[in-house]
What does this fold into?
Amino acid sequence: MVYKWNNSEESVLEKPFEEVPCRSWVYDESSVPGTAATEMDLVCSREVFQSLVNMLFMGGIFVGSLFFGVISDWKGRRVSLYLSLVLWILSSLPLYFVNDIKLLAVLRFLIGFSGNGIFMNSFILAIEIVSSPYRSLVGLISQILFSVGEIIICGIAFLERDWHMLCLLSAVIYIPCLIYWFFVNESPRWLTSQGKFEEAQNLYRKIAKTNKIEFPEDDANLEAPIISNTKKGSLIDLFKSRILFWRSLIIFFNWGVINMVYYGLLFSSGDLTSNLYLSSFLSGLAEIPAYIILLFTLDRLGRKPLYCTSTILSGIACIVSGFAHVWGKDLPWISTTLALVGKFAISSSFAIIFNLTTELFPTVVRNSALGLSSSVGRVGSMLAPYIMLSLDSCHCFFLRHEVRICQKQ
It folds into this structure.
């Protein structure tokens, strides 16, 4: 908004300046040559569209979590993973040519829809192909690789600052993954839960042969009548049992809280330093030590004590960071360090709730339960962009941190 000087005597006395809407904008592209926001003029009165696109992305994750969770338990992890891969590629490639906010919003929704399917199915496949003692290890390694991907994309974005090209790269990098169909096997636990015991037996034999160990044919045959009669499950089963019902409600609530806090910190990571790329790098880097510590403590100390500790630590760090920003402006590194501690702690909570969800529900509804939990969690992450926008308009850095801890209580 600009102001026009009224030089008439009456105008000067009553209202010396007249508001005139902006007709064009000039952007500082010294650090970032061009973004979707600058190309589509998503500023001033149109700034809300930035939050809308972020919300639709999270909305895509919300719907995709439900969809791929059900598909995974119905048709298998392998089919669901491949379907999400194909959809990601088809929705990412057109972003290279996009210059319209409506099309951008639709494609971002589809990317969120398919992206969570890729991660969720990969995560379930990874933990179901190993024995129970190694599930938490494999799950945490998956989380570490996710954070490594965050760091790598920061480096790529620093070298290639054209957002169209970044979107193209995100599609092209997944094209070789299409050959997974010929190399990635179905989850043996899903096969047994569906009564496909012979296929599971063959897969177990293949795994045993690869690891050069003898497959216990006699023990497996004794289990066949039991496993082949395993009941197929659905989302409705989560609410039939009283134990599963209350367990589901508690898990859903925690997913919502963790997502709101995690993405609230993620969306405000640009406030950490004056350099956007460095801020994003530090935000991703803060997660890795959290997962490494969990590798050595999760099985020894237990899920619940570590989950409660990390969640409380995140809240305290965010509150103190807010105070440090308001009353310690001469020492900005204190606020930055505390914010990174908050990201470190909430990342631990995120990893633990992921593992807890897969461990607390039976195989027949495991991916459906994870998908529904993730969907409920996305309600919190969908609210995060609007919370950040409303508080940014008030310039309330302290309140942004304060809200995060209030969301925990």
